[in-house]
Amino acid sequence: MRRQGRKNRRIFGNGVTILGLVLVVALLAIVIFVRGNTLQKQNKNYLAMEESLEDELSKEELREKNLEDRRVYSKTKEYVMEEAREIFGLQMPDEIIVKPEN
Q1: Which parts of the chain are coiled coil (predicted)?
Q2: Residue 94 gets which letter from DSSP?
Q3: I need a surface site. Which of 1, 19, 90, 92 has the fewest CB within 10 A?
């Protein structure tokens, strides 16, 4: 029996070695758990940021479309005549413009 006891002590040393290993494993588990929670919070923040950027992108695409429509419209004869009426007060030969006295 004595020999068996010595073998067990050699394999496991004393309880301090086992306790040390358990503490190291526990600390690693805690670190992994905390890091996992931190990464989940970062992921939520990134998802919210991605959603807001997608909204902003759709607004900018709509703005781009409106600007493109305005650019095309600004090259039409109708636009040129409208601007001439507003800025210079021009009129067509058979047109009468009535302005209020205010």
Answers
A1: 43-70
A2: T
A3: 1
Domain count, the chain: 1
Which domain does 34 fall in, by range? 2-88
- Is-contact 95 89, C-beta < 8 A? no
> The pTM is what?
0.54
In a domain, 98, yes or no: no
pLDDT under 50: residue ranges of the chain:
none
For 76-96, b where at least 16 C-beta lie within 10 A, e where not — what string?
Answer: eeeeeeeeeeeeeeeeeeeee
Residue 60 maps to a domain = yes
Residue 89 CA to residue 74 CA, distance in Å, equals 18
Tokens of 1: 């029996």
In angstroms, rounded to a whole number, what is the distance separating the alpha carbons of residues 9 and 59? 72
Asked if residues 56 and 62 have their Cβ atoms less than 8 Å apart, the reply is no
